[in-house]
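@channel sequence for tomorrow's demo:
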Amino acid sequence: FEEGLQYIQKAQPELSKEHRFWRNLVDRTLAMEQFMRGDVDASLEMLNNMITADQSNLENLYYLPQMADLYSIQGRLIESWEIYSRALEAATESSGNLLPVAGIAQIGMGEVLREWNRLDEAEETVLKGVKLVYQWGEIGAMDGYINLMRIRQSRRDFNGAANALADAIRLARRFDATDMDDFLVANY
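structure tokens (generated this afternoon):
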């Protein structure tokens, strides 16, 4: 991680505004580095600076849920809900159809609903999110299965929780690109 961070810091000044994808990837990685070091406020500030006022900017759909996740970690559930709602709105087409990336926000909203003990609504929201994320890419559903496991544990549905965890493990093993996915499911 430290070596990768050194490369990112070297690359950052070299990336012009024309290299938007790479610049955003570097900036997101640096924001997560702040989080991993325990400075959630710095991470939130960096993500907030990356979000544009242009609601049609699809890059916001990556930053907003990440910000909402950090608010949830801090126990700031109302702010988290508001940010997830913004992400969901940004991922809604003018026709009212949700883009597959909206599933990330729905999965996060389900976790907030679980924290509020609105378990039926939480499970329904997470399942909708997982279904949407599958249209985008299966690996994105792993967080949904972990959240679904937590919801079912809260309901004392231990068989359902075990099934959700098994789905998360299956995805982690199937997409063995990094050790991070295996680490996430192993800690539940």
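heads up for whoever presents: Confidence is low (pLDDT under 50) at residues 177-185.
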